[in-house]
Automatic annotation (TrEMBL), chain A:
Sequence ranges assigned to domain ABC transporter in this UniProt record: 8-259
NCBIfam families on file: oligo_HPY (TIGR01727)
Molecular function, one GO term: ATP hydrolysis activity
InterPro entries: AAA+_ATPase, ABC_Ni/Peptide_Import, ABC_transporter-like_ATP-bd, ABC_transporter-like_CS, Oligopep_ABC_C, P-loop_NTPase
Topology of this chain in the membrane: Peripheral membrane protein
Protein name, as recorded: ABC transporter ATP-binding protein
Localisation: Cell membrane
GO terms under cellular component: plasma membrane
SUPFAM superfamilies noted in UniProt: P-loop containing nucleoside triphosphate hydrolases (SSF52540)
UniProt cross-references to Pfam families, sorted A to Z: ABC_tran, oligo_HPY
UniProtKB/TrEMBL annotation, chain B:
Protein's name according to its UniProt entry: ABC transporter permease
Compartmental location: Cell membrane
Signal sequence bounds: none
Record's bilayer topology term: Multi-pass membrane protein
Chief location category: membrane
Organism: Lientehia hominis
Gene3D superfamilies: MetI-like
Domain ABC transmembrane type-1: 93-294
Entries under PROSITE patterns matching the protein: ABC_TM1
PANTHER family: INNER MEMBRANE ABC TRANSPORTER (PTHR30465), OLIGOPEPTIDE TRANSPORT SYSTEM PERMEASE PROTEIN OPPB (PTHR30465:SF93)
Residues annotated as transmembrane: 9-30, 99-120, 132-152, 172-190, 226-251, 271-297
Biological processes per GO annotation: transmembrane transport
Annotated family: Belongs to the binding-protein-dependent transport system permease family.
Cellular component GO terms held in the UniProt record: plasma membrane
């Protein structure tokens, strides 16, 4: 595999929100990078900070509602957290596109679909109205919407959920951005449509060479799509590695739990689906030690004292878990059935 | 669309028919009689009653009235000499209409402006400023506002005429006094609506396209926030344009307003019915108008099922 250029680098990102109940530390030191043409999946449960991280890359949350405490985000040559909103407007849509979760609410109900796609083109590529509409019809064709000419002159409520998500993709990709952030793009769709949308994203990525950050809580859809995976828990990165590493040699007990929670078709006799017991910690307070300790059956004394650092498990594969410390007791990895060792 | 409007118009006629019938009967239930006055000799009273046809059986009176109404004749006012209700309304209505339209424009322009400003500067100075004005506009009655601005601008500062409806300058104070309450409600509704819309996902989508705040507001927020405004605008137009007793009284404007109150106090039956008709026709037409505007603002709303 040849070394691709780094497109996006996120380093030690810390994000907080001020709420009536106090400061919520939503993201607590996250680092990852996205290479050109690569798909990175950010996986985690609700409230793990994955969407906040992704929106920070675009500075989408209004500046007065969010605090970037630490870290930096570098997209190409731009320090995203340092530039002005005016500078960001040149990046949003033009270089980074975004697809939101719910296609029923993510399109403007009172604006023609073609016009919604054309807006970005008029803004960034300075096309005139007629050209921009022509381009948006082409975009609709590209995302597989039949009768694109007529459909461009319709309103979102005349489209089905899956079709609307295709429109969202067309909007996000209209200016041919280098990075596409897909925030749970299939969560609101039914399973057959899910597969179609993912297939479409993969296909367009191949054609356009776009990098994708795929945010999801569904490990099942990740395996097909992503080259690299980061697993987030309580605002922290718990495991990072290639798709193969995470699926075949997962290192963190949380990842084990996630993998065990994916329903398996050959275990139909089981009555109850597997789950990870307990709930994630409250993000209002500082977390002492490992954030996963109270739900982890392998938790040790040290886990309550000190947060684990990232241990190298292999090339570019890390897990933040004390089990990989040299003094840790030997625990059997339930996925691989092998002993946990930091260097295999 | 045309079918819908025709249907609505038929329903409107039916509504007006029922309304007029009910009001016709109800005013007869009011205690007293227009000509029952101890100072007037009994014989004169009888003569007056028979002159206006009030001595005939009720159903006969009703049929006569309805028949005249169909021919556009609302009868003679009982309290003026030989003046028809039509004449009274035609003479007074233009004043009320003029004042109402001015107040309406003031309400919509200032109300939307303040509301949008408040929403864009949420929780900042301009938000508090706009909402303070809104609270004052809603809670202080118009007769206090009216007298107050009369005192300040006409009596003390002497920069505007104190009353009457003659020059352009004389329209400013009554327009302000009449419109302020509506400014306040439009501003509050617009602010709430815009703030709600700001949290919608499609605003995020618009931002992710790289649009500036101004473009997002103009292209995405405004149209979507207007629907609740359209809803209150219908009744508001009817109230403002058909005249108000208090404001017209304070500023000595010869509009329709005084007839609402006077006609009932003096039991001027035909005038009561005439005023009811003017107001209800206005209200019904405005409701129809609102329905049509709904469809224009929001394509999801279809007029025909």
């Amino acid at each position: 595999m040849k070394e691709e250029q780094v497109l996006l680098q996120v380093e030690d990102l810390q994000v907080s929100f001020d709420t009536y109940a106090g400061e919520v530390k939503a993201v607590r030191g996250v680092s990852f990078e996205v290479h050109e043409g690569e798909t990175l999946a950010i996986v985690g449960e609700s409230g793990s900070g994955k969407s906040v991280t992704a929106q920070a890359v675009m500075r989408l949350t209004p500046d007065d509602q969010i605090q970037y405490k630490n870290g930096h985000i570098r997209f190409e040559d731009t320090e995203v957290l340092k530039v002005s909103q005016k500078e960001m407007e040149k990046i949003r849509g033009a270089k980074i596109g975004m697809i939101l979760q719910d296609p029923l609410t993510s399109l403007n109900p009172t604006m023609l679909v073609g016009k919604q796609i054309a807006e970005g083109l008029i803004k960034h590529q300075h096309l005139d109205k007629a050209e921009a509409i022509k381009r948006s019809v082409e975009m609709l064709k590209m995302v597989g919407i039949p009768n694109a000419e007529q459909r461009a002159c319709q309103y979102p409520h005349e489209f089905s959920g899956g079709m609307r998500q295709r429109v969202s993709i067309a909007i996000a990709l209209a200016c041919n951005p280098k990075l596409l952030i897909a925030d749970e793009p299939t969560t609101a769709l039914d399973v057959t449509i899910q597969a179609q949308i993912l297939e479409l994203m993969k296909d367009l990525q191949k054609r356009l060479g776009t990098s994708i950050i795929l945010i999801t809580h569904d490990l099942g859809i990740v395996a097909d799509m992503a080259e690299n995976i980061v697993i987030m828990y309580a605002g922290r990165l718990v495991e990072k590695g290639s798709c193969k590493d995470v699926f075949y040699r997962p290192g963190h007990p949380y990842t084990w739990g996630l993998l065990e929670s994916v329903p398996k078709i050959d275990q139909a006799s089981k009555e109850e689906l597997d789950s990870i017991p307990g709930t994630p910690p409250d993000l209002h307070s500082d977390i002492k030690g490992c954030p996963f300790k109270s739900r982890c059956k392998y938790a040790m004394k040290i886990c309550y004292e000190q947060a684990p650092e990232a241990f190298e498990l292999g090339e570019k594969h890390t897990a933040s878990c004390w089990l990989y410390h040299e003094n840790a007791p030997e625990v059997k990895n339930p996925i691989t059935n092998r002993e946990c060792k930091s260097d295999e | 669309m045309v079918k819908y409007i025709v249907k609505k118009i038929c329903v409107a006629f039916l509504t007006i028919f029922i309304l007029v019938s009910v009001v016709f009967l109800m005013i007869r239930l009011l205690p007293g009689d227009p000509f029952n006055d101890v100072k007037v000799p009994k014989a004169t009273q009888e003569k007056m009653r028979s002159y206006y046809g009030l001595d005939k059986p009720l159903h006969e009176q009703y049929l006569t009235y309805m028949n005249n109404l169909l021919h556009g004749n609302m009868g003679y006012s009982l309290r003026t000499q030989n003046r028809t209700v039509n004449e009274i309304i035609v003479k007074a209505f233009p004043y009320s209409l003029d004042l109402g339209i001015r107040a309406l424009i003031f309400a919509v322009v200032a109300g939307l402006g303040l509301g949008i400003l408040a929403a864009l500067k949420h929780n900042k100075f301009w938000d508090h400023f706009s909402m303070t004005i809104a609270v004052i506009g809603i809670s202080v009655p118009s007769f206090i506002i009216g007298s107050l601005i009369q005192y300040v601008f006409a009596v003390k500062l002497k920069i505007l005429p104190v009353a009457l409806w003659e020059t352009e300058a004389s329209t400013i104070l009554p327009t302000f006094a009449l419109g302020l309450g509506s400014v306040a409600s439009v501003a509050r509704i617009m602010r709430t609506s815009m703030l709600e819309i700001s949290n919608e996902d499609y605003i995020k989508t618009a931002k992710a396209k790289g649009l500036s705040n101004f473009e997002i507001t103009r292209k995405h927020k405004l149209r979507n926030s207007l629907l609740p405004i359209v809803t209150v605008l219908g009744p508001m137009v009817a109230v403002l344009l058909t005249g108000t007793f208090v404001i017209e009284n304070i500023f000595a404007i010869p509009g329709l307003g005084k007839h609402y109150v006077n006609s009932i106090q003096t039991l001027d039956y035909p005038l009561i019915l005439g005023m009811t008709l003017v107001y209800s026709v206005f209200l019904i037409v405005m409701q129809l108008f609102v329905d049509i505007v709904y469809g224009l603002v929001d394509p999801r709303i279809k007029l025909y099922q």
